[in-house]
Design a protein that fits this description.
Blueprint lengths: L3 E13 L3 H12 L4 E5 L6 H4 L32 E2 L19 E2 L23 H5 L9 H15 L24 H13 L3 E3 L33 H4 L1 H6 L3 E5 L1 E8 L5 E8 L4 E12 L3 H10 L33 H4 L15 E4 L2 E6 L2 E4 L5
Bound molecules: flavin-adenine dinucleotide and iron/sulfur cluster.
Length: about 375
């Protein structure tokens, strides 16, 4: 029979996953005096060594696109490490006819090493979908309940933006935004002409030195990871502070397999696979935080079946694994004929693109560091 090695210590809290949720919980709980053990399926991260923020294409074989351009599929080899659409050894299936693609990160900090840093608040209307759209359910809490926590997070991680009083994109605690680039100035002018509200975006990028982190130097390479921690990642802005308390134990290469319930019906340990030795180990704690990302947290809870909880843990409603929402991505492009004949000039700007539809009834389209905020009905 396989041997399961158990940790001799019973920690106050065991956190599964080191991304946005796990990293934040680790910082808050350790600074509050609790002993915390964290299981992270990926390896540790060393930003100085692992981030290719200032690497030139000619410094990498195949200019960073891999053999036959293969790596381009996963945003190229410049991307912050260990984030991909497909992860070796971890296949998934999707419903017939579905084009769902699942971007996962396997590294300390999770997807906060890869995210676009667009840091928007839910709007009051987002908490009231049933009342406003007749779809979904109203949340049992309101925007006003959550707003003080948004304030707290923004004050700590640093978010730039401007106060605009747009109902679908509530204002927050902002650092000044960078100056708009020429393309953004053109978009703004066009929006003004047709009456669409166009405002600077809100990004978790610091434009002033903050808590020992240097201000952004506008290299425009956030997706590669930022060595100076001028943008937010859990790996640089949360985990190191948990480590500083001396009450934090991080176990990397540890794939949580099941949360094990004791005779009293309470969760008492996590069984995990040590990926280096391929052995099963157990870590004990008094409380557990599941922060393995939306889909994987659901999978772990469903895999945590026992005679007391035959449908998995925390699943008395039967909806674990259903109605899941993960982040979505989209892209668009265009040509500005006005710029074709313009001479290139040195440009100090951020380089953050993408768009985020926070919720169907409050749609915020973002073009680089400008946001076009317009309540829209889909
Ligand atoms: C390319 C990209 C761009 C994005 N841009 C934005 C944006 O601009 N704005 C925005 O708001 N959101 C954005 N997101 C979404 C955002 O990154 C995620 O919503 C957020 O990181 C989720 O945090 P999390 O803690 O739930 O999970 P994650 O950050 O994914 O962290 C989960 C961690 O758990 C670990 N893990 C998983 N399973 C196990 C297991 N069984 N055992 C142990 N560890 C495990 C993983 O290895 C990972 O490190 C983006 C995401 C991607 C991929
Ligand atoms: S643009 Fe700013 S925040 Fe992004 S990687 Fe460069 S220095 Fe860091």
């Amino acid at each position: 029979m396989a041997q399961v090695t158990r940790s001799p210590k019973v920690y106050d809290v065991c956190i599964i996953g080191s991304g946005a949720s796990g990293g934040t919980a680790a910082k808050i709980l350790t600074e509050g005096g609790l002993s915390v053990v964290m299981l992270e399926a990926g390896p540790p991260l060393n930003p100085e060594k692992d981030f290719k923020e200032h690497v030139w294409p000619y410094q990498l074989p195949h200019r960073g696109v891999g053999v036959g351009g293969k790596a381009a599929e996963n945003f190229g080899e410049f991307l912050a490490p260990n984030g991909a659409w497909e992860i070796e050894g971890e296949p998934y299936t999707v419903a017939n006819g579905s084009r769902f693609r699942w971007f996962r990160s396997r590294i300390v900090g999770g997807r906060t090493n890869h995210w676009g840093r667009i840091a928007l608040r839910f709007a009051p209307v987002d908490f009231k979908s049933r009342s406003t759209d007749g779809m979904g359910d109203d949340w049992p809490i309101t925007y006003e309940d959550v707003a003080p926590y948004y304030d707290k997070v923004e004050s700590y991680i640093g978010v730039f933006g401007t106060k605009e009083n747009v109902s679908s994109a509530p204002d927050g605690v902002f650092m000044p935004p960078p100056k708009p680039r020429c393309t953004e100035t053109i978009i703004k002018k066009a929006c003004d002409k047709i009456g669409v509200i166009c405002i600077p975006s809100r990004l978790a990028v610091i434009t002033q030195a903050h808590n020992g982190r240097a201000a952004c130097h506008y290299c425009g390479q956030c997706g590669r990871g930022c060595i100076s921690a001028s943008n937010f990642s859990s790996s640089q802005v949360m985990i190191p502070y948990a480590e500083k308390t001396g009450r934090f134990t991080l176990i990397t290469g540890a794939m949580a397999r099941e949360i094990v319930v004791g005779k009293t019906g309470r969760a008492e340990s996590v069984s995990y696979i040590d990926k280096a030795t391929r052995t099963e180990k157990k870590v004990y704690a008094k409380a557990f935080v599941v922060g393995a990302s939306a889909c994987e947290s659901a999978r772990l809870l469903l895999n945590s079946k026992s005679s007391q909880f035959p449908d998995g843990l925390a699943n008395s409603s039967g909806v674990i694994g259903k109605y899941l929402t993960d982040s979505v991505g989209s892209s668009g492009g265009g040509i500005f004929p006005q710029l074709i004949t313009m001479a290139s000039v040195a440009c100090t700007c951020t380089c953050h693109g993408g768009s985020l539809i926070a919720r169907m009834s409050s749609c915020v389209a973002i073009t680089s560091n400008l946001a076009v905020a317009e309540p829209c009905r889909v």
